[in-house]
Structures are given as C-alpha cells and as structure tokens.
Amino acid sequence: MLCRRLLTRAGYRVETETDPQKALVYLKENKVDLLLVDIRMPGVDGFEVSQHVQRLQPDAAVLIMTGHGTVETAIRALRQGVDGLILKPFGQGSELIDAVKLALADSQQKRDAARTQALRPLFSVTESLLSETRREPLLDLIIAAICGQLKSQRAACYQWKDATKEFEILTWRGEILPKQYHEMISSVDESSAPVMINVNGPGDPGLKSLLADLNLGSAILVPVLRQNLRMVLYAVRGESEPPFSGSDLEMFQILARQAAAALENARLYAEQVDYVRQVEESQKALLQAEKMAAAGRLSASIAHEVNNPLQAVQNCLHLAGREDLPEEKRREYFDLARTELERLTLTVRRMLDFYRPNATLIEKVDIAEMLQYILNLMSKQLSESNIKVQVDFSDRPTPVMAVGSQIQQVFINLILNAADAMPDGGNLNIQAHSMPDGVEILFQDQGKGIPWEKQTNIFEPFFSTKEGGTGLGLTVSYNIVTAHGGVLEYLPERTPGACFRIYLPTGGNQ
Asked: I want to staple 201 with a disulfide (CB 3.0 to 4.6 A). Which of 56, 65, 71, 288 is the partner?
C-alpha cells in the first residue's frame, strides 16, 4: 500500500496485486509501462515473475525491490535484464520515485538502442528495394527483407482485388495463412492501422484467438494504402519464439512504407516503359506511313527506273535470238542483258530496303553514291517538273555509319519538298562535303521559301506550308537525323528559296 500511495501521489496510475498468479493474469490482458515486484513472495520468486512479464510485454520496464540486497542478487538482476534494483526500506518516498524514473529511463534507452540497431540495416535494404524496377522480383525482395529484419520464418503480402472483392496473396515465405483466417487481414485493412498481436499478452481477444488456433505466438500486420495500391503485409513468429516488441512494429512500419514507395516506383517505371514502347511503335508506324506517301509520289519515277532495264533486256534477248546473228554479236547482246538485269536487281533491292518496316541495320553509307542513286531514280519525275539539279561533291564526303534506308528517306523527302516548292520549275542545288567527325549536306531550292512566322513550326507533326501536304515529311526526317546523332535545320539566311542543312556524324548514334 505504501508503494501505491507514494507513486499515485507522484502522478502515476498504479494497479496493485498481492497474488503473483493474479498479477500474471492481469498482465496478459492489460498493457503496463513498468512492473514493480518484490523478490520474495509466497509461492513464487520475483525474478520468475519478471521473466513472465518480459515474455508477455517485452517493452515493459522491470524494477526489482528487496530487503536482502546482496552482490549475487544484483548480478542476477543484471543477467535477467531488469531495469532497476531498489532496497527496502525506502526511507523517504523520493528514493522510490527516483528509482521508478531511472528504471523507465533505462528501459527507454534500451528500446532506443534496439531501435537504432534494428533500423541501421534498413538503409541497405531500402537501397536494394528502390533499385529494383521489376514488380515480381521486388515482391520477393520485400518478403525476404521482412523475414530478415524481423527474424521471422513466415511472412506474406496480400493485395486487394476489385474483381473478386477480397484480398489475394501475392507472395509469401513459409506456411500460407488459411483462407478462413483472412478476417485478420480484412480487419487491419479496415482500421488502416498496424496491429501487433501477442497470444500471451494484451490485445484484441478475437485476433489472439485466431492466432492461437494457428499455433502461432505473435504477429504484426501492417496495411499499405496508396492511390494505386491496397495491400497488407504480415509477419508471424511461433509459440516457442520471443514475441514481437514495439521496436519490431516500428521497424515493420518503416519497411512497409519503403516497400510501398518501391512498388510505386516499379509501377511508374513499367508505365514509362510501356509509354516508350507505344511511342516507338507510333514512330515506326509514322515512318512507314511517310515511306508509303513518298512511294506514291515516286511511283512514276520508280516505274521508269524498272521499265528501262526490262525493255533493254527484252530487246537484247530478241536480237540475240536471230539465227543469222554471229556468235560474237549474240554473246555481246547477252552481256548487255546481264548488265541490265544486274542494274534492275540493284534497283529492286534498294527499293525493298527502303520500304521494309524493320530495316534498321547500321552500315557504312556512301553519301555521294546514295544521292546519285536517288537522283537517277527521280530523274524522270524531276525532268517532267522542269527541275534542274546541280550537285557539288567536289570534296568526296566521308562515309558515315547509318541506317541506309532511313537516310535515303530523308534525302527523298527533301528533294520532293524542293520540287513541290518550285511548281514552275527551277534549280535545286545539292552540296555534300566532309566536316570534322561528320558530313554536311545542303539542299537549296529557288522557291518562295518559308515565311519567318512559320519557320519555328516546320518540324512539328502535321504542320505543312503547302496545300495537300501531310505535314509528316520533315517531322519524320528530323526524328531520323536526330536518332543518328545528327542535326537537321532550316537556314533562313540562305536565299533565295529554302535551304535545309543536314549534319551526320561519321560514327552514327543508333
């Protein structure tokens, strides 16, 4: 009674019990901050009571009092991890109050030290979680981290499924929680607050009963609630293992927050990857659409380029079939036919490379040779449009590493645009020469040029300065050149007409 009166007067809320067995029953159902126990009591030793308390409530401080203090008693108290030892009689009440304060402070210091020691490894765990961007391996890392940090053999992650309106297990370690016990998961989700259950300690009787039915000793369940995430993480220990403490709960909450952040990062990364894939597919479709548009505009020239060698082959074979023709002359006609067929094969192969959607092989490209081939291919169309082409390859440009079909498409787009800019005919000047680490190509026509107020928009999709234009040619060309690490730009100071400059690095960039 004296202890109760002194402590109550000091502002503490005190419960007393003279029967040790009744005290243990009380401690199973009610949380306390400190246990003040006498060593000598009827039928039981005070040290035994303190051991029970440390199992029931690991975070409670323990203060032992005795009227027979010895060195052996002090050593035993230290070994059992009690937080204080006070000798009777107390004399003045201040001695007891000071001992209680000291025991509470010592207990708090122990918890802080345990918390610090437990939280330190979380830094490396957090780093590993945030560095993993794949969802499935990340979930395995989370479960492994829970088991490792909480020294638990069983842990699991449950996620709410809108389709089934229930929690479904995503990943786990150890034995799976039977489905009939999922009400523990649901109750924690509904409360939005973490729960620590100790079968032999204070807590919700219903949850303790569920845990006892599974032959488990203690459990921690932590909800994870985010805008795109609704999960519950749990870890359990067996009956023979020490119960979870407050520092375990705090660590689990921090780990759950880090896990939620890592899962959100993984989700955003997956969305970004999917977005990039969609953009790449759109760009491929755009590239192919512009190729087909260019094919339509080039159809007459292509037909002419294919028809000429075919006609030559036909004539050679017809002449070689004459019976009165000398053998030498016949051989000459066959050689001419073979030459024209080789020319036709080369033309068809280049056109197939141009139209093939996935022609992305990087190769050595001779800029001068490619431009000359394109001009030969388009010669009929340019001639009919009264376009005269002047080329300047005096400084033979250095070959570049590039996707030939794509660079070919850029050249065709710029030549067709120049032709469209001169409906009544005119001159198109093309220059190509080597530069440090690259090649520069200039295309200059004698058209009206591009008004200054539209010059900033010419590379935007679907923007066109000509009637009936798709507005894709320059956009696709710009993207191709940029992907090669080069530059495509409009030079407003080069007049008359419009002048476009291409710079391609020698080594390529794809």
From this structure: 56
Q: How far apart are CA 64 and CA 50, in angstroms?
A: 8
What residue spans of 378-444 are helical by DSSP H? 379-384, 404-421
Domain at 443, CATH number? 3.30.565.10
Helix (H) or strand (E) holding 487: strand 487-490
Secondary structure (3-state) at 393 = coil
User: Is 320 part of any domain?
Assistant: no
Instruction: Provide mean pLDDT across the span 45-57.
Output: 81
b/e per residue 390-418 (b: at least 16 CB within 10 A):
eeebeeebebbbbbbbbbbbbbbbbbbbb
What is the Cα–Cα distance from 497 to 414, expressed in whole angstroms?
13
Question: From residue 101, how far is each of 2, 35, 58, 79 by CA, in Å?
Answer: 17, 12, 18, 21
Cβ neighbourhood burial of 89 (10 Å; 0-12, 13-18, 19+)? exposed
What ranges in 422-472 are assigned the alpha helix state H?
none
- Domain residues for 463? 360-510
What is the per-residue pLDDT across 386-441, written as a single tens digit (0 to 9) for each? 999 999 987 788 899 998 888 988 898 899 889 988 989 999 999 999 988 899 99
262-319 per-position pLDDT tens digit: 888 888 888 888 888 887 787 777 766 666 666 666 565 566 567 667 877 887 787 7
DSSP 491: -
What's the rounded Cα separation, in Å, for the pair 469 and 449?
Answer: 16
Q: Do 484 and 410 fall within a single domain?
A: yes
86 and 156 co-located in one domain: no
Which of 271, 286, 303 is a domain's end point?
A: 271
- Measured distance CA(310)–CA(272) in Å, rounded: 51
At position 498, the amino acid (one-letter code) is: A
Is 319 contained in some domain? no
DSSP-derived pairing of the beta strands 387-392 and 426-435 = parallel
One domain, residues 23 and 102: yes
Assign 109 to helix, strand or coil.
Answer: helix
From the list 355, 476, 345, the residue with the least C-alpha distance to 405 is 355
Any residues with CB less than 8 A from the CB of 332 and at least 6 apart, and which? none
Q: Which residues does residue 159 pair with via DSSP β-bridges, in sequence order?
A: 168, 231
User: Distance from CA of residue 465 to its chain's centroid?
Assistant: 41
User: Considering the domain boundaries, does residue 315 fall inside one?
Assistant: no
Instruction: 66-74: list long-range contacts, CB under 8 Å, 24+ apart.
Output: 66/38, 66/39, 66/40, 67/40, 68/39, 68/40, 73/39
Q: How many domains does the chain have?
A: 3
**Considering the entire predicted model, what is its pTM?**
0.47
Can you give the pLDDT at residue 390?
93
